[in-house]
Every structure is written in structure tokens, then in C-alpha cells.
Amino acid sequence: QALATLASYDWLVFTSTNGVDLFLRRLKSRNMDVSALQGRLIAAVGESTAACLSRSGIAVSLVPKFFSAEGLAAEFEQLDVAEKSMLLITAESGRESFPRKLMSMAGEVHVVPVYKNEPVPANEVAQLALLKNGFSPDVITFTSPSTVHNFVELVGQERIDFWHENGCRFAAIGSITQSAMKAHFIAVDIVPKKSTITEFVESIVDYFNDK
Predict the structure, then answer these.
(1) What are phi and psi of 41, to 5 degrees?
(2) I need a labelling partner for 108 at 20 to 30 A (CA). Which of 41, 68, 76, 156 fits?
């Protein structure tokens, strides 16, 4: 229904590269292309999402200084969107605070989930036996709150504590993931200044070089 009425939206808001890929797939399945977005303003939550849109020929109008939903909401607060309509392309059961924030600012916001995150069953994780039988990693990286929650479910809090006590370090890609780690009592040793994979890798390298 949203695709059939794209012309009615002032803004399209993408919160992940997954959202972009699946939106474009759905667009193609209806024999539509990116020309259907002409005249719409496009917002992306960060550089990776913006790059994914750009590669598909979609011009991005807004990328926040801080790559997060909160950062994007802060950017919209600086704009006059009180009479604007927005289509928010996001994950099912995503964080509710961001849509609520947009709804408090914009004239109309339609939230369309295009995918959902599901944990991988333990019996499909080939490395699980290794993780539970003496292997001690040097660093464990988390790229989203869901990776934190699901990993704790998979290996257990006790083993995570054991790893940290034996020198393993834990890295979060950004502040939202960092908060999820703290909620699970996981020490956060490494956080990049910008929430991109490139800066994440560089921050890990710098941390161990400094050591």
C-alpha cells in the first residue's frame, strides 16, 4: 500500500542497509524502479545506509552527524517537518522510541517493517562447541543490540565473564550497542567515534596496538 502511494510522502526514512535492499526488492516485484522516488526527500541513518541508497541511484538528502536513530531524530528536530508525511522503512519489532519521536514531530508517519531479526538456532552454530570448550578469544565484537542479546542467550553470561577475566576484550560499534552490553553486565572496552565498520575495525586495531 505504501509503494502504491509513494507520491504522497514528503520523506522516506531508511534505518538500515537491510531495509534499503528489501525495499528495492519489493519495488522491483511491483515492476517499479527508483524513478518512483522522484521528488521524495530521503533520509538514511548512517553512511552505510546512505551508500547503499546512492549505489542504487537514489539521492540522499539527510544523514545525521551521529549515526544512530537518535542522531537522525535530532536532525529532524532542526527541520520544519510539522506538516510533512513520512514513510519509515525499518525492522519489525525495532526500537519503538524512534518512530514515536518522528510521530511527535511530523504531520504523519507510516511505519512499514520490511524484515525482522531472528536468532540463529544453537544447533546451526558450528562454532558453539568450540566456544564452550576452552577456546578464549582475544576480542568479541557486537554490531547491534540483537547480536548482544542473542550471543548471551547462546553462550551464557558465566562464559562471557570468564573470557573477560582472562583477557578477552569486548567491542561495541556504537552507543546503542554499548547500552545493550551494559544491560547484560558486559564490560565495554572499545567503541569507535563513528558507528561505521571501517572505524570499528580501526578502533580495535588501535586498541591492541596501544597495548
Answers:
(1) -90, 140
(2) 68
d(CA 2, CA 112): 8
Q: Please say whether the beta carbons of 177 and 198 come within 8 A.
A: no
What type of residue sits at position 84?
Answer: K
Whether the full predicted model's pTM is greater than 0.85, yes or no, is no
CA distances from residue 120 to 93, 126, 128, 166, 167 in whole angstroms, order as listed: 17, 11, 11, 27, 27
Long-range contact list for 196-200, CB < 8 A, 24+ apart?
196/46, 196/47, 196/48, 196/67, 197/48, 197/143, 197/173, 200/141, 200/143, 200/171, 200/173
Classified as helix, coil or strand, 122 is helix
- One DSSP character per residue, 170-195 reads EEESSHHHHHHHHHTT----B--SS-
SS3 132: coil
Distance CA 186, CA 162 (A): 11
Cα–Cα–Cα angle for 84, 76, 64, nearest 5°? 135
Which residue is associated with the grid cell 576484550?
A: 169
Per-residue pLDDT of the chain (211 residues; tens, 9 = 90+): 899 999 999 999 999 899 999 999 999 999 999 999 989 999 998 888 999 999 999 999 999 887 788 888 888 888 888 889 999 998 886 567 888 888 888 888 999 999 888 888 877 777 777 777 777 889 999 998 889 998 998 888 988 998 999 899 999 998 889 999 999 999 999 999 888 888 899 999 999 998 7
